[in-house]
Amino acid sequence: MADITASMVKELREMTGLGMMDCKKALAETDGDMKAAEDLLRIKSGAKASKAAGRIAAEGVIGAYVSADGQCGALIEVNCETDFVARNEDIIDFARKLAELIATKNLTAITALSDALLSSGETVEAVRKALIMKLGENISIRRCGRHATKGQLAYYLHGTKIGVMVDYVGGDEALGKDIAMHIAASKPVCVSKEQVSADVLEHERQIFTAQAAESGKPANIIEKMVDGRIAKYLAEITLLGQPFVKDPEQTIEKLLAKKSAKVNSFTMFIVGEGIEKKSENFAEEVKAQMEQAK
Q1: How many helices (H) and strands (E) are present in the chain, helices listed first?
Q2: What's the pTM?
Q3: What is the CATH number of domain 1-55?
Q4: Of the residues 53, 125, 224, 281, which has the fewest C-beta atoms closer than 10 A?
Q5: Quick one: angle between helices 20-29 and 6-16, nearest 10?
Q6: Domain boundaries in the chain?
């Protein structure tokens, strides 16, 4: 049997939001398999999904740019070590300029950025290194997303931590902004249910089936229960199925229909999404420094 450590229990607790003892027991039952333990807890607790994806685990800023004609634009994530530096205007300005560079020069890979020239005539790498010297922290360019469309682009920045870019046709500029703001608030995974992979649906169906089976109801009732939960799940994760944040009485699909509009695609960046931040223990750090000083 795998050795279940405190850090494993802590990680599973953060992923699921469930109690420490429940997490420890699930890890023991699955021989330390984190994914299997998460699924087991979902089945037993009825939890909808992992909370891990929503954790902000690193600092930095999102930069955004859309051209004057609204047909090309970009988002970029620039990371640093602390929230204090993330609020510095120099790094915010750097992210804005990078987004404009990516959009106007058609750069789609981070590796192509280092030698690219900013409007100042300096390379991106030279400016990045200068920021490191000035701010005293490591500055890294993590990811970017460029959009080009025959329709229209709109973007929304929630502070500097969440950035959304929407490619849409029809409607007006206000609609595009509303859709981008809605995505930042409701965080859909994709535009429509047709874009949800068969593997993801099958996995969720298995979880829902196991949850429903614990009710002890007949198989035909369980099947209907699962179908209902799948429909609800799709409404929650797809843009078109979600209630519009400004008017929950109508879905985004109905809102777009009223405006004779369509969303082609969107990109959403959340600062630090998916990055594990080093856990700091100040007392342990001081103790270690004192030991080294002896």
Answers
A1: 11, 8
A2: 0.74
A3: 1.10.8.10
A4: 281
A5: 110
A6: 1-55, 59-186+261-270
